[in-house]
Structure formats: structure tokens, C-alpha cells
Write a structure and sequence with these properties.
The complex is a heterodimer of chains A (295) and B (186). Chain A is mainly alpha-helical. Chain A has one domain (5-294). Chain A is 75% helix and 0% strand. Chain A has 16 helices and no strands. In chain A, 49% of the residues are buried. Chain B has a seven-stranded antiparallel β-sheet with strand order 1-2-3-7-6-5-4. The longest helix of chain B is centred in the first third of the chain and has 22 residues, at 3-24. Chain B is an alpha+beta fold and 186 residues long. Chain B is 22% helix and 26% strand. Classes of the chains: A mainly alpha (295), B alpha+beta (186). The A-B interface holds A 2, 46-49, 51, 54, 61, 64-65, 67-72, 74-75, 77-78, 81, 138-144, 148, 151-152, 155-156, 286, 289-290, 292-295 and B 26, 28-37, 41, 47-48, 51-52, 64-70, 72-76, 86, 88, 90, 92, 94-95, 98, 117-121, 131, 133, 135-137, 140.
Chain lengths: 295, 186
């Protein structure tokens, strides 16, 4: 039996590189971020009560719901895990290429790694696609119209603002530069199915993406990204996010960095789990909100 | 290596691989089925049916739907972008134990039993089946405001909801069960 969502929440690290990177990014977002890792505390915030009997009831219901496969909470987490593994793999490769580029004998390694930008753009679009799929798994299709759905999606993203800021900074602004969001569509247009297959997460997600064949999947991802870009553009504008600001914010928590921005992005991709970490927290919150309403 | 041994070894390894694949790879989340309380989905009212029955927001307030599953729909009540309360309708066929607390209810709204759960949550059970809940968020809501919100739901139409296929529980099919437990005071 796999772990329930709340068990996963309680096993999240309280202090490691992932948490430090998120702490750094959260200084750019109003409201900040507190790294919630206690299930009981989360439940008591949602129900506004410290009563241990009530908290226990909510917890039992939440575990029931997360064990029921049809409810989708566990599926959302397995999507996040797949994307996270893919991020480690591509990040590791890019990091290795960067490190070995200066060593004469190992230079060949850097020449076999794929060109960064397109791959990075596809990686970002896979993450955004995973986000949409996970959203429908966790929340269903809330409301009766597309407008309702759009509002619900924006609301979900707004609730997980630090998560979205991390996604935009670590996978957009740092590796692709400040014009990342504007360049994204063009880069995706240039991406072929070969680029898609270089990403380990794609193999696991392919069956879930609507449409048959790589071309249909790419076009789904592009449409998903288009939707998301509108929201993300406003978000970047509101907070004034930029690669430079992200670097400064990160330096505040993980220490000075002297390399290029895309090297920092590769390093973070390879050694942190920001996407899955905040994903578990976001799913846990929605799960508890539901369990609290059903007890 | 003798030919037979090679075959046995190969088949054994292949079998082991299949078993290990089925057990160890995290595919189990994607197997179909696995509903809550092992009830067929057809017997549970779909969340889509609940959406129209939420209270209409007052001026300056906004209702944002947040979750919709089979037997469940939840929305947030927002004022000036701040979440004031969670509003939810759920079908208790997947959580029959939730009905127990209403047995001791002393208050009613429109004849349906009302209970408080902690300082921020009020719950109403309509037609012995649908649980309506208002949970104050952030700075919280006083009980009177929560009760007003509960009364704002479209109670008669919630009471009249039916699943696609009737539930196995006999009690729910008797029309007498559909009446309010207490008639509203004349």
C-alpha cells in the first residue's frame, strides 16, 4: 500500500536544500511561505479548532479519501513524482555537462547533452501540463462553465503562489532568461517529438495526455501552456519577477552563487525537489478541506 | 549449461520480472476502481448537481468553486479576495458515520437538524442524506452568519435530489424519510 497524502506531508523535509530554495523564492512573494509539514496543524487551521477528537475524525476521513484511487489525490502525487524524477535526470545531465566542460578529457560529455533551451522549454511545458492534469485529478472540473473552471484554476494557482513563483523562476526565468514567457511559445513551436522523448517524464505522462501521438500531445501542451501563460504573465508583472531578482533571493538563503543563471537552474533541477515538495502540500490542503466538509 | 536449465532459468526470471513489475512499480494509483466506502459511483449523486444549489453571494462577495467530485462539491466564499468560509455539499452515502452526530441535534434550520462542530463549523443534514457545511476560515464567522449561509442554500431542491441509480439502503427510498424531521413552526 502506498503512503497516504498526509503521511507524505509529514515525511517532507523540514530543512534541506529544497526548503532553503523555496524559502529564498518566498521572499519575492507577499504572504511568504511557512513550509507546512504537520498534518494535525493543517487540519486545525482548516477547521478552526484544536479539538483532538475532531482532528482525528478529519484525519481518518482524509486517509480514506487518499486511499480511494478514484478520488485522484494519490494520482496527482504520482504525476508530481514522475515530473520530479524527470527534472532530476535532465538537471543532472545539464549540471554534469556544465561541470565537465572545463576538463579536457571530459569535454565530450558536454557535447552529447541536448541543446538547453528547447529541452528546457519542453520540460517547463510538461510541468505546466502535469499541473493541469493534477488539478483535474484533485479538484475535478469545478463549476458549471469554462469561466468557473478558469476562476477555480486561477484560485488554485493563487493559493499556491510560492509554488508557482518557484516554477516560473526555476524553470522559466533562470534557464531561459527574463523573456522566458514570451519566448516559450516560439521554442515550443520549434520542438519536435524527439525533444519530447528525451524527457523521462513524458513516457509516464503520455497515456494521460489527451490526443494520440506526439504531435497531438505537443499541441495539447502548447494549448495548456497558452492558458497558463496569460496568468503567469500577470503574476510576473505584479511581483516584478526577474532572473536577477530570483538569484538575489536565492543567495539570501542558500549562499553566494558565481556561475551563470542557467547553471544555477541546472543545479537546482538536479538537487532539489521543489515541484514535488510544494505539490504534496497543495494536494494535502485540498484533501483536508474536503475531509473537513465530509465528517 | 544444459538446455532445460536455461529454459527454466529464463522463464523463472521473466516471471519474477512481471511479478516485481506489478508489485514494485507505482502503477497501482492508476488502476481503476477504488471508490470511497466501496459504493458504486452510480449510487452517489454527482457533484455537478450540487453546483446550482449554493447560496447566491451578497454584494461584495464572490463564490469560487474549488472542488467537484462524485458526491461532493465545495466552494469558497470570498470577500475582497479573502476567503471567509468554505461551503460544501456532500452525499453521505460514502460517509454514513457522518449522519450519527445529527441524532443529538437540538436546533434546526427549515426543519432540518443542525449541529456545530467546533467553534467554526456548522453542519446541516437535509433529507437524511445530504450534508451541508459552512466552515469559517481566517478570522472566522460567528454562528449566526454561518446559519444564515446554510439557510441560503436551495434546501428544497437539495432535498429532492436523486442519484442515477437508487441506493441499496431501503430506508432512503421510503418517501416518509424525505420529509423534514421536524415541521417548521407555523
Amino acid at each position: 500500500m502506498s503512503r497516504t497524502v498526509l503521511e507524505r506531508l509529514e515525511r517532507l523535509p523540514r530543512r534541506d536544500l529544497t526548503v532553503l530554495a523555496l524559502k529564498g523564492i518566498s521572499t519575492l512573494v507577499p504572504g511568504g511561505w511557512s513550509n507546512p509539514t504537520s498534518a494535525d496543524q493543517l487540519i486545525s487551521t482548516v477547521i478552526g479548532s484544536q479539538d483532538p477528537a475532531l482532528i482525528r475524525q478529519v484525519r481518518i476521513r482524509a486517509d480514506q479519501l487518499s486511499n480511494a484511487r478514484a478520488e485522484g489525490y494519490g494520482r496527482a502525487l504520482s504525476l508530481y513524482d514522475a515530473v520530479n524524477r524527470s527534472q532530476h535526470a535532465t538537471g543532472g545531465l545539464r549540471f554534469l555537462a556544465n561541470v565537465t566542460a572545463g576538463l579536457p578529457l571530459l569535454k565530450r560529455i558536454s557535447s552529447i547533452t541536448p541543446p538547453g533551451d528547447t529541452l528546457q522549454a519542453v520540460d517547463l511545458s510538461l510541468k505546466v501540463g502535469a499541473e493541469l492534469l493534477a488539478f483535474t485529478q484533485v479538484n475535478g472540473l469545478p463549476g458549471d462553465s469554462f469561466t468557473d473552471f478558469g476562476v477555480a484554476l486561477a484560485d488554485y494557482a493563487g493559493e499556491a503562489r510560492v509554488r508557482m513563483a518557484a516554477l516560473i523562476c526555476f524553470d522559466g526565468l533562470l534557464p531561459l532568461g527574463d523573456q522566458a514567457l514570451k519566448r516559450l511559445d516560439g521554442l515550443l513551436g520549434a520542438a519536435g517529438s524527439g525533444d519530447l522523448h528525451k524527457l523521462p517524464a513524458y513516457g509516464r505522462m503520455a497515456a494521460l495526455i489527451p490526443g494520440r501521438g506526439d504531435a497531438a500531445h505537443l499541441s495539447f501542451l502548447r494549448r495548456g501552456v497558452d492558458q497558463w501563460l496569460g496568468w503567469a504573465g500577470d503574476f510576473v508583472g505584479q511581483l516584478g519577477l526577474s532572473g536577477q531578482k530570483a538569484v538575489v533571493a536565492l543567495e539570501g538563503s542558500i549562499g553566494p552563487w558565481q556561475g551563470r543563471m542557467d547553471q544555477l537552474a541546472a543545479f537546482l533541477d538536479a538537487f532539489t525537489d521543489t515541484y514535488a515538495h510544494t505539490g504534496v502540500q497543495a494536494v494535502a490542503r485540498r484533501l483536508v478541506e474536503r475531509a473537513a466538509a465530509e465528517i | 549449461m544444459p538446455r532445460l536449465l536455461r529454459w527454466v532459468l529464463a522463464i523463472g526470471l521473466a516471471g519474477l520480472l512481471i511479478v516485481a513489475g506489478a508489485l514494485l512499480l507505482p502503477f497501482s494509483d492508476w488502476w481503476p476502481g477504488g471508490t470511497v466506502a466501496e459504493i458504486s459511483k452510480q449510487e452517489v449523486v454527482n457533484g455537478t448537481a450540487f453546483n446550482r444549489l449554493f447560496p447566491t453571494p451578497a454584494a461584495g462577495e464572490e463564490i469560487v468553486f474549488s472542488q467537484e467530485k462524485r458526491g461532493f462539491s465545495e466552494a469558497k466564499l470570498k470577500r475582497d479576495g479573502v476567503v471567509e468560509a468554505l461551503l460544501a455539499i456532500s452525499d453521505t452515502t460514502t460517509a454514513p458515520e457522518a449522519r450519527a452526530k445529527f441524532a443529538a441535534a437540538s436546533e434546526t434550520i427549515a426543519g432540518w437538524p443542525l449541529v456545530e462542530q467546533g467553534p467554526q463549523a456548522s453542519a446541516l443534514l437535509v433529507s437524511d442524506r445530504f450534508q451541508l457545511k459552512v466552515i469559517g476560515q481566517g478570522s472566522g464567522l460567528d454562528p449566526q452568519r454561518r446559519h444564515d449561509l446554510l439557510a441560503g442554500f436551495d434546501l428544497p431542491r437539495i432535498a429532492a435530489l436523486e442519484p442515477k441509480r437508487p441506493t441499496r439502503t431501503k430506508a432512503l427510498q421510503q418517501p416518509a424519510e424525505r420529509q423534514p424531521v421536524l415541521q417548521p413552526a407555523a
